[in-house]
Predict the structure.
Amino acid sequence: MTTDSLVMPKPATGVIRIGADGRPWIEGFRCGDCGAAFTEQTMACRRCASRNAPEAFRAVDTGKLYSWSVVHRSYPGVAVPFVSAIVDLEDGLTLKGTLRGVDADAVRQGMPVALVFDDAGGARDKDGVPYVGFHFIPRGDA
Amino acid sequence: MSDVYIVGADMIAFGRYPDRTYYQLGAEASLKALDDAGLSIKDIGAVYASSCFNAQSMLGQKVLKEIGQTGVPCINVSNACASGATAVREAFIGIKSGIYDAVLVVGSEKNPRGMLGGAPHDGPPPEGLFGSESMPAVFAEAGMVHAAAYGTTIEQFAKVAVKNHQHATMNPKAAYRKETPLDEVLASEMIAWPLTKLMCSANVDGAAALVLVSEKKARELGMSRAVRIRASMLTSDPYEPRNPVMFDANSVTRLAAAKAYEMAGLGPQDLDVVELHDCFATAEILHYENLGLCGEGEAGRLIDSGDTALGGRIPVNVSGGLLSKGHPIGATGVANIVEIVEHLRGEAGARQVSGAKIGLSHVLGFGAAAGVHILEKA
Ligand SMILES: [Zn+2]
């Protein structure tokens, strides 16, 4: 990951949290009553409607590919092709991300993947502050 | 409570209308449906108007400014691709409640050009950075779950496009009326694996309208061409563990279908004709199972068998579907019902499903909403 040493980076998407030391992680929210996991904080549980608000947890960075598409045409200015992936992390959270470092023909449901934090393609906000993003890569074995 | 009948149903030919407004298109469809019913706007007690992109502009009132300002309530609805079905259901409730004897439903849309989707975000644009938010990718991903579970092939997905494009050649109101053999579908530009361009719905403008009446009014007008609404159902997406990261096209449709079959006292085996939401070829495969047209995992074999083509056991999207008739978002749900009505009346011309007595229409709105209507020749 490349970030400026003096400027704290910003999350490039809502599920990323960044510690005081600059190290990022994925935050999920889990219902204490039914165990359902979510990518955002809600007022009550989406699954069981418990008013005990789901509690934050630090997600693991390994999971399995649930579905994907090889995107050949996208919005103007977006580099193609890329693999759009739906990944089930091992602790129950599902994320959407780009899967890199894999031959498109070799992509299979259930393939083990790892989450890697990155510099969000080098993006900067209007003040020049860098972002932290993530993508997925294949794991050698499960 | 009174049964609800459709006595007027019509639409404009779907296509591009660069020189006309969405409310002019809606007004034209409205006049056609009123003429079909033998009614005037002065007979109408309320207007239910649907559009995905223009409902907030007082679409119903704008239509009335074109065809007669009678002062009746206008209910303007937006519910993504289920906007039209939502308007029909609200109109159904209006008649059921006994408040109105006759109402007009109009769905009208001028779609934005280019690939639809992509909401504004904080931070860098997510497209390509965090997978794809484009609709082709979203429905490709939904299809790949089916492929992984049941071995569904790209050829099976592509056959949906072959079938629906072939059907459209018989529909003078379809935007695209050109046969596309399997090799042509597979060879067209790859948009999002496994979806090629010819497996994606046609982005066009359009409008469709219906006149709904009470049983008393239907008897007054004569029942010879009346179609009874056996079920009108609308659902939102129930909890699914991967939602909203992964759009769930299935559970919201299954819920709507189950409730609609229960309301109608019918099952999928009773259907003669189906118009379902083939926004992408993968979606039609999923909805075969979601609507109970075949068993779990059998959708690939169902398209292979030809049973869902005109002349088959249960013809699906004989209009050409969203793939070739076109998908003007807020008009789609109304137009799907217009198609079913034409078949039940025996007025569908070259594409008539012979002897059709009961038909189902389905739409799916991203976000999510599903509308299912079951109609029967009165
Ligand atoms: Zn819960």
Q: What stands out?
A: The mean pLDDT of chain B is 96.
